[in-house]
Design brief:
It is a single chain. The chain is mainly beta. It has 2 domains: 97 residues, Tumour Suppressor Smad4, CATH 2.60.200; 92 residues, Tumour Suppressor Smad4 (Sandwich). The protein is 5% helix and 39% strand. It is built from 1 helix and 23 strands. The strands form 4 sheets. It has a 6-stranded antiparallel sheet, with no helix packed on it. About 18% of the residues have low confidence.
Length: 260
């Protein structure tokens, strides 16, 4: 049996307070969406009633879009309605919510462990022995200690962290979506950028989008071929979410904010 078959799958996210949220996935189909019948239900207007389907079977994970309005992305690439394989560490974007797949070992049954341990250490008692007395909890080595977890039951409606995002257009596979978790989000050809583009006209570190007191601002980082917003060359520009078109090299981008 493979290691993953002995483990249980889950999705990990953050809530709107930045706390880790663990969403267990059951064996079989797991629907994600706003509808009450979904196994994982999100309170988010960017999420469709039935948005995506994650299936766990025989130690494998597959995922597909369910015809959602805002698409489902696996590692930034849009999913179709056919199943695609996913693995631990892969990022799933549902609307503007970022989730990561994990395998984990389910906890053992405390009651069974305690009974077995008590039976193993129990000795025959003679007539002169003192009767068994309950051990103080702090001395009971059969009690299992577990770290605190913030976990959600399937079907519980939850408000998770939501992020602004950049969409990359003009590729044969369709638009890609990158969530902006950073106060300064860099764009360029170098691999250390938050958005690394394969475009020979893009500089190594071409532009940066910053969250400032006046809103979201994009700045040129001294690029060779310039930064363009709505076909105008700019050095610095305050972005209008969901409307402005950004051009770096031959790559067209759009900055958007989640709907409230």
């Amino acid at each position: 049996m493979s290691e993953s078959k002995r483990l249980t799958a889950r999705l990990v996210a953050a809530d709107d307070q930045g706390r880790r949220i663990e969403l267990p996935l059951r064996e079989g189909p797991n629907r994600i969406g706003r509808a009450p019948h979904c196994e994982i239900q999100f309170d988010d207007p960017e999420c469709s009633r039935e948005h995506a389907l994650v299936t766990v079977a025989d130690g494998r994970i597959s995922v597909r879009d369910l015809g959602s309005e805002n698409a489902t992305f696996l590692n930034h690439h849009p999913l179709g309605t056919a199943d695609e394989a996913a693995a631990a560490g892969d990022e799933l974007i549902v609307g503007v919510i970022a989730l990561t797949f994990e395998w984990f070992a389910p906890p053992v049954d405390d009651s069974a462990t305690m009974v077995n341990a008590m039976q193993a250490r129990r000795r025959p008692r003679g007539a002169d022995d003192e009767p068994d007395r309950p051990r103080p909890a702090e001395l009971d080595e059969t009690r299992l200690l577990r770290p605190e977890e913030v976990a959600l039951e399937p079907g519980r409606r939850q408000r998770l962290a939501r992020f602004p995002f950049i969409e990359v257009f003009g590729e044969s596979a369709g638009a890609r979506r990158f969530l902006m978790r950073q106060a300064a989000f860099t764009i360029g050809r170098a691999p250390d950028n938050h958005l690394a583009l394969v475009d020979k006209l893009v500089s190594g570190h071409h532009a940066v989008i910053r969250h400032t007191a006046e809103g979201y601002v994009i700045e040129d980082l001294g690029s060779r071929n310039g930064l363009f917003v709505n076909n105008q060359k700019v050095q610095r520009h305050r972005l209008t979410p969901n409307l402005d078109t950004i051009l770096v090299g031959d790559t067209r981008l759009r900055f958007s904010l989640p709907r409230e």
